[in-house]
Amino acid sequence: MTDLTSSRLTTLWTSPGPRVVPAPPTPRTTDFDRVARMVLWPLSLMLIVHRVLVLSVNGSVTDDFSTVYYALRRFHDGVPIYNETYHHVDPHYLYSPGATLALSPLGLLTDFDSARMWFICLNAAAIVAGLGILTRMFGYALSSAVFPSAVCFAFLTEAVRNTLVFSNINGILLLALAGYLHCLLHDRRWAAGILIGLAILIKPIFAPLLFLPFVKLNWRTVCTGVLVPVVVNAVAWPIVPGAGDYVTRTMPYLGEVRDYANSSLPGIATYYGMPWWQEKFWFAFFAAVVVAGVIVLLRWRYTDPLLWVSTTSGLLLAGVFLLSSLGQMYYSMLLFPLLFTVLLRRSAMHSPVAWIAVYCFLSADVWFSDEWLDLGRAMHYLKPTVGWALIVLTITVSAMVWWWQERKGVAATASEPPSPSRETDHPNPDPQPEGRR
After folding, report:
1. What backbone phi and psi angles, to 5 degrees, belong to 291?
2. 258 vs 267: CA distance, rounded Å
C-alpha cells in the first residue's frame, strides 16, 4: 500500500516524460536564417540608436533618474536622503539603505547629463546582453536569427522604451534575472544566489523567485539570496545618513496603494473606486490562480527544467505585478524569459490568448480616442492590468491541460495489454524450421 501511494504521488508531482535538455547552441545556416539576420540586425541597430540617442536624450515628464541621482549625491555629501514629500506625485526615492550603498558609485559622477547618459547606455547594453543570455539558454547561437529577432522585438515594446526614456534600472535587472535563471539551469548555485540577492536588494519584487531553488532544496542559492540583501543593508545602515527614516517614513508609503501611474489590481480598484468586496474577490481569485499554476508546473521541474524555470518565474512575476500595491507597465520587461518559451515544444505562449496578453502589457499603443472618450481612456489605463491577468490565467490553464493530457496518456498506457514476447509467443501459426530462418 505504501509503495502504491508513493507511486501515485510521484506521478502527480513529477511528469513521467523524459528529461528535456536544450540542444547546445549551434549556428543556423539556412537561407531563411541568413535573410532574417540581414533584415533584423539593421532594424535592431536603428531601433537601439533611436531609443538611446533620440527618445532618451529628449527625456519625458516622468524622470526616474533625477530622483535617484540626487539622492545618491546627498548620500556622498552626508545629507539625509529620505526627505521626500510623499503626497506629491513626482517620482520618489524608494530604495533601501543597502540599495543606496550598492548604487552609490553612480553618485560619484558630478555632471548630471553625463551620468544620465552613461546610465541609459548601461541599461541598453544590459537589455541586449540579457536577451543574448536568454537566446543561449534556449539553445540558439548568437549568430542565429533568434537573437536579432529578440532585440528588435524588445526595443519596440513600451517596457524597453520607457525604461530608457525614464532612465531607470530595469534593464540591469533584466540582465540579473536572465543570469539568475541561466545559473539555476547550470547548477551554479552561489552565482545564482548572489544575482537574485542583488536583484532583491534593488527591488524586493524579485523575492518570490527564491521559490525556484527552494522547491528543489537548493539551500546554497536560497541562503545566499536572503543573506545578500540582509548583509548589505546591515553594512549600509550606519553609513547612509538618516537610514532610520526609511523605516519610519518610506516603508509606510511603500505599503500604500496610490491611485496614479499604478496598473496593479489594487491600484486600478482605488482609481475607479471599486467596492471593497469586489476588489477582495478578484484579489483572492487571481492569487488562487497563481498558486494553482505554480503547483501544477512543479511536475516539470525535473523533466523539463527550462520550461519550468521560465514559465514559473513569469507566472510569479506577473502575479506580483498584478496583485502588489504598485504595478507599472514597464515591469513587464521581466517577462521576456517567459516569451522565449514560444521556441519550446511545449509552452503557454503557444496560445493566441497569451499574445493578446503580451500586446496588452508590452504594446506602446495609446488608446485614447476622440470619438469614444470614456471607453478609450478605460482601455488605455486597463491595458497592462488585463494583460497580466490574461497571462496568469493562460499559464495556469495551459499547465492544467498539460497535466490532464499526461494523466490520460499514463492511464491509456497502463490499460494497454502487454505485447507478445518474441521468445515465448509465436504470432505466426506456422513458424519456419530452424534451418530456414
Report:
1. -60, -45
2. 6
Which residue blocks in 203-241 are alpha helix, DSSP H? 211-215, 219-236
CB-CB contact of 361 with 391 (8 Å): yes
6-24: buried (b, 16+ CB within 10 Å) or exposed (e) per residue?
eeeeeeeeebeeeebebee
Query: Distance between CA atoms of 196 and 309, rounded to whole angstroms?
Result: 14
Spatial CA neighbour of 96 closest among 239, 263, 194, 211 = 239
Type of residue numbered 424: T
The CA R_g of the chain, rounded to the nearest whole Å, is: 25
Amino acid at 201: L
pLDDT score at 16: 67
The closest of 170, 155, 171, 164 to 62, measured between CA atoms, is 164
| The predicted structure's pLDDT at residue 422 | 41
What is the amino acid identity at position 275? P
pLDDT averaged over consecutive 10-residue blocks of the chain (437 residues)? 48 64 56 89 97 94 91 93 71 90 94 96 98 96 95 97 96 98 96 98 97 96 97 96 90 85 93 94 98 96 96 98 94 98 96 97 93 91 97 98 85 56 42 40
Rounded Cα distance, 158 and 263, in Å: 14
| pLDDT reported for residue 417 | 58
Q: CB–CB of 293/396 below 8 Å?
A: yes
Q: Is the dihedral of CA 239, 241, 244, 246 positive or negative?
A: negative
